[in-house]
Design goal:
heterotrimer; A mainly alpha (293); B mainly alpha (279); C alpha/beta (239); B: 279 residues; mainly alpha; MetI-like fold; 78% helix; globular; C: 239 residues; Rossmann fold; six-stranded mixed sheet; sulfate transport (chain B)
């Protein structure tokens, strides 16, 4: 550096911290981020409601009152009400097994639990069809005995459980590893039964994480499309869930009906985000998702 | 390893119940269905599988899915890092809303995203009218598929990179500045290498998600064989024709792609642990 | 280089980190800023290094106003308390960083950078660790690498923030002598921050005792011991 720089006037235009970009760069980056997100995420969100209400509230509400719409809503609620508790129970059991015991092959087990996240929903649906479909030995026997799985509610439940499989477990495992085993061991030495120990010691410690995982699981369960499209057979009034019904309405050019049902699901997605953000803000220390080392 | 017992004896209760539920569900939901696909493949035979996949239409679909997923993940890599940086480092009105909105593609059902994007970019849609004026058709072209894949993969990079940015000690940046480096030099040579492993993990997750994506794509894709037909749609078409062998063959090809992605993600994490000492 | 601190004050929002302080540091001196945490000593060091900008007052280098110089232009060798080594770079790359970051016109040729890094590794008596990563080094080795990295840019002064803070007692004693030796060899004006009065008294030519954002006393170690100027200094150096 030459000495000339030392002769510069004493007062700088603006002091810039060594860890910040120039204000111009900062605002440009904020503009890119906010603008990009508004276009990619904000615009689709808005258009759902715009399209749903393009003929007014009455048309939207009426479309949701149709028989097909009503049966889709009921079916989706039913599927969610079965699949989410199944996953919650599995998640708790798997997290307990993995964090409270030491055994060989633990890492492999965790990989297996995570596996459904990396498989295409369509392939997941295909797997279930191949296992339980009428063409397979098992499926043929089940259909003959009067318990069809594919093209029926049980298949949709299985597909939904498959695609949401890791949600609760992967939220609970880090939290339970962090909390260790000492509290449970203390309760046991005090004479508590295993169930009582779980209910009074473990559950209070993991309840927010459990709620968080269940919330994400619910959102995905209600909205699953690819896997359900394959296993449901899309039978109107019987196996058509809300997302499948959206597709049917859309393909039949029933735009108001399609977007009204989409708006309903979008409203639920927004509610999920709201609850999720609230949990992250208020119980960040009890969640693994927000624990940043 | 070989000396340790299969499972350590402890006083902790619930081994039977928890292990029982875990393995029952894992078997019923994951292992048996995937096993059925593999079984189907074995029955169908390698020659038949190859004959199914080795058709122009199937290659075109697999290549299209992979190529557009890759391009979408590339966009998400750059945009996701910018987004993460802005959210962690800058304070501006509405930051919390933006932060929450990043997760919307995770929360929004894919079919909803699909019809919403189509409504926006169709030739008579709000944005479609604009793009068509400059001769750029988005809906029913590969651009539309790319856009849908960008949408579903959007949160991955941001969510993997954000915690890493939060962890950077500002002293490292200050050290770089005291050594005479410009801000741009610091960002390129100090910050970027620190973010690289997490960003690549997010990239791979976004890519893996996009390759298998179906719901958000089929509405906007146009689904023209050889041009805008994605691989998962081929499976659906085969199934609708009760062509289980062919559906299984394409499914196996996609399963193989999924497994290689999983391997890729694990390799990235092993590499980053070696290099930086943590993920 | 002679450093003149002229009525420097610093506010962070509503809290005052430094009341106006003045201090003259002769060229080639080794100065300790001594005080408890919250005394403003680190803030003063960071203002010298250009990492913070004073609310009021001036910094003069060799009689010329340097207040407005950016961090990059200051050319102060700064050693951070945590060392702030670049974890993804080898020791060699860490030390060469400042030279490689220079604009092409003033960047030394590769062979020259190589030679300088080797010389610095010899200076800190760790010639064999060039290819290692910071996570593979002991605390004492990291501190010396941070020092070598700061020296590589041929700084006009050396600023050290609690340079021995993160080390255990034994290593600390060894490295004190190391710093003294390097200072005597390079003859750089050096300022270090410490809360340890033994360290300040043993190492520094001039000790500046600070408390609550004010300078309590400036003097040679023996003078401060013999004649504490205020109640605070008496208590602090006895503790």
């Amino acid at each position: 550096m030459s000495d000339a720089t030392l002769h510069k006037p004493a007062t700088p235009a603006r002091f810039r911290s060594a860890t910040e970009e120039s204000p111009a760069a900062r605002w440009a980056l904020i503009a890119v981020a906010v603008g990009g997100l508004a276009l990619l995420v904000g615009a689709p969100l808005v258009i759902v409601f715009v399209e749903a209400l393009s003929r007014g509230w009455a048309a939207a509400v009426t479309s949701l009152a149709s028989r097909d719409a009503q049966s889709a809503i009921r079916l989706t609620l039913l599927i969610t009400a079965i699949a989410v508790p199944m996953n919650a129970v599995f998640g708790i059991a798997a997290a307990w097994f993995i964090t409270k015991f030491d055994f060989r092959g633990k890492a492999f087990l965790i990989t297996l639990i995570d596996l459904p996240f990396s498989i295409s929903p369509v392939v997941a649906g295909l797997c279930i069809v191949l296992l339980f479909g009428a063409n397979s030995a098992l499926g043929g026997w089940l259909v003959a005995s009067g318990y069809p799985i594919v093209f029926a509610v049980p298949g949709i439940v299985l597909a939904t459980v498959f695609v949401t499989f890791p949600f609760v477990a992967r939220e609970l495992i880090p939290v339970m590893i962090e909390q260790g085993r000492a509290e449970e061991e203390a309760a046991l030495t005090l004479g508590a039964t295993g169930w009582r120990t779980f209910r009074t010691v473990t559950l209070p410690n993991i309840r927010w994480a459990l709620l968080y995982g269940t919330l994400l699981c619910t959102a995905r369960a209600m909205g699953e499309f690819g896997a359900v499209a394959v296993v449901s057979g899309k039978i109107r009034g019987q196996t058509a869930t809300m997302p499948i019904t959206i597709e049917m309405f859309y393909n039949e050019y029933l735009s108001i009906a399609a977007f009204s049902m989409a708006a309903l699901l979008t409203g639920f997605a927004l509610l999920t985000l709201l609850l999720k953000t609230a949990l992250e803000l208020r119980h960040a220390d009890a969640l693994s998702a927000t624990r940043r080392h | 390893m070989s000396g340790t017992p299969l499972i350590q004896r402890t006083a902790m209760p619930g081994l039977g119940v928890s292990a029982g539920i875990t393995f029952f569900m894992l078997t019923l939901v994951v292992a048996l269905p995937i096993g059925a696909l593999l079984w189907q493949g074995a029955e169908f035979g390698a020659a038949n599988i190859w004959a199914t996949i080795n058709r122009e239409r199937v290659w075109a679909a697999l290549w299209l899915s992979f190529r557009l997923s890759f391009l979408a993940a590339c966009f998400n890599l750059v945009f996701g890092v910018i987004l993460a940086w802005v959210l962690v480092r800058y304070r501006f009105p509405g930051r919390r809303i933006i932060d929450a909105a990043v997760d919307l593609p995770f929360a929004l059902p894919t079919a909803v995203a699909g019809i919403a994007l189509t409504a926006l970019y169709a030739p008579n849609g709000v944005l479609g009218q604009l793009t068509n004026q400059i001769g750029w058709q988005v809906a029913y072209t590969q651009w539309g598929i790319w856009l849908a894949l960008v949408f579903v993969g959007l949160p991955f990079v941001t969510r993997t990179v954000q915690p890493v940015i939060e962890e950077i000690e500002t002293e490292v940046e200050e050290a770089s500045a005291t050594l005479g480096a410009s801000r741009l030099h610091t960002l390129r040579h100090v910050i970027a290498p620190m973010l690289m492993p997490a960003a690549l993990t997010g990239f791979a997750l976004s890519l893996a998600r996009a390759v298998g994506e179906y719901g958000s794509v089929i509405f906007i894709a146009g689904n023209i064989p050889l041009r805008t037909e994605i691989a998962p749609l081929l499976i659906v078409i085969q199934l609708e024709e009760y062509n289980y062998g062919a559906a299984g063959a394409i499914g196996l090809a996609m399963l193989a792609i999924s497994f290689s992605m999983l391997l890729l993600i694990n390799l990235i994490q092993i590499w980053s642990r070696r290099r930086i000492g943590h993920v | 280089m002679h450093i003149q601190i002229d009525e420097i004050a610093k506010d962070f929002g509503t809290t005052t980190a430094l009341h106006p302080v003045s201090l003259s540091i002769p060229s080639g001196a080794l100065v300790a800023l001594l005080g408890p945490s919250g005394s403003g000593k680190t803030t003063l060091l960071r203002i010298l290094g250009g990492l913070e900008f004073p609310t009021s007052g001036r910094v003069m280098f060799n009689g010329q106003d340097a207040t407005g110089l950016s961090v990059q232009e200051r050319r102060a060798g700064f050693v951070f308390q945590s060392y702030a080594l670049f974890r993804h770079m080898t020791v060699f790359e860490n030390i060469a960083y400042g030279l490689r970051a220079r604009p092409r016109a003033s960047r030394p040729p590769k062979a020259e950078i190589d030679r300088r890094v080797r010389r610095l590794l010899d200076l800190i008596q760790l010639p064999q660790i060039a290819t290692r990563y910071p996570t593979q080094l002991s605390g004492g080795q990291r501190q010396r690498v941070a020092l070598a990295r700061a020296l590589a840019i041929e700084p006009r002064m050396l600023l050290l923030d609690e340079p021995f803070g993160a080390l255990d007692a034994k290593v600390r004693k060894e490295l004190r002598q190391g710093l003294r030796d390097i200072h005597d060899e390079t003859d750089l004006t050096s300022v270090f921050v410490t809360h340890d009065q033994d360290e300040a008294m043993e190492l520094a030519d001039l000790v500046v005792v600070m408390s609550m954002g004010r300078i309590e006393q400036i003097g040679k170690p023996q003078d401060i011991r013999a004649k504490p100027a205020t109640e605070f200094v008496r208590d602090f150096i006895r503790a």
